[in-house]
Description:
Layout: E1 2-5, E2 8-10, E3 22-25, E4 28-30, E5 43-45, E6 48-50, E7 63-70, E8 83-92, E9 110-112, H1 177-180
Parallel strand pairs: 1-3, 2-4, 3-5, 4-6, 5-7, 6-7, 7-8, 8-9
Amino acid sequence: MEFVQDVTIKEKNFTTTPYLPAEYDQCIFQNCIFTGVHISNTSFLECTFIDCNLSNTQWGGTTLNDVSFENCKLVGADFTSCNDFLLSIRFRESVLNLANFSSLPLDRTSLKHCVMNEVDFTNTSLQNATFEQSNLERSIFKNTNISSADFTTALNFSINPSENNLRKAVFAKDNLTGLLLHTGITIT
């Protein structure tokens, strides 16, 4: 496998240009299109994706270690097929609608100013994760470990406390509706 280090890759459309798996170390991908592309068995180490479209990208066996996604579109991204060893990812101002993080170890993950409608976090470990100003409408939290996670500015979440580990999770007192919806009480 080819080794690529400290390179900035700009404005590549991998839907028309062949994508070759490699080990990318400290690389930046800017304004690239990966829509529906198989980037399987690739290693991204300390890489940053900026303004990229990774919707419906195939991640089979891909390693994501200390990887940031900034202002990216990741609609339908199924991260469950990634290599979960040393998995470490962050998202800022990205769209992750319909993404799947089920059963992944995502402790300390940072999700800032993201749109995350209908995201699946079933059986995911999100200890100490941060959901700063992120919209979690219709996202699924079931058997999810969100202990010590920060939801103080999260929007539109719905989390059943009896089905998830919320120990020491932080919520704003004026934003508890998402924890009470499952009780059947009326909130006015």
